[in-house]
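Deliverable D2.4 — example input (structure tokens):
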């Protein structure tokens, strides 16, 4: 697999450290932030609450950085996937439908089929594109070794 994958530990997890490592790898991306008390999906911006952050995915069409930690007591680690020069044989791409009630959702505000509400930084999104990365073992058997978010797709977009 020719995909560039980097990973490292981010000791301390200060807000400035998180934002510096994100901006080093991704610009003009979309963020999915999972906190202990909330879920946020927005255009890329500065993270201000590292104390409650458990996982962040910041992505654009070419790359994703994932910052994570198992618990608030642990240090953050991160992994970066940059697939600018990726071959189609290195991944399987899937478009997943979002859970949304199209009659109640409009613009950036979405209502799930179960009634939950959420906001996305893309108006009228219908799907999210996921890229699954393939590796082969010694016997040539393929396996999915990682995945990343690529982009949100609007209704009818390919």
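Example output (designed residues):
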């Amino acid at each position: 697999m020719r995909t560039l994958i980097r990973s490292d530990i981010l000791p301390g997890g200060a807000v400035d450290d998180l934002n510096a490592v994100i901006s080093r790898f991704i610009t003009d991306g979309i963020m999915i932030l999972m906190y202990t008390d909330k879920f946020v999906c927005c255009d890329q911006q500065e993270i201000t609450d590292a104390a409650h952050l458990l996982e962040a995915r910041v992505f654009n069409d070419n790359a994703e950085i994932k910052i994570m930690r198992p618990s608030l007591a642990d240090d953050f680690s991160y992994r970066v996937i940059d697939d600018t020069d990726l071959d189609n044989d290195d991944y399987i791409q899937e478009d997943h439908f979002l859970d949304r009630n199209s009659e109640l959702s409009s613009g950036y505000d979405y209502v799930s089929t179960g009634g939950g509400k959420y906001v996305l930084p893309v108006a009228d999104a219908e799907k999210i594109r996921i890229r699954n990365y393939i590796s082969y073992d010694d016997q040539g058997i393929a396996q999915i070794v990682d995945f990343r978010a690529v982009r949100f797709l609007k209704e009818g977009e390919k």
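The mean pLDDT is 91.
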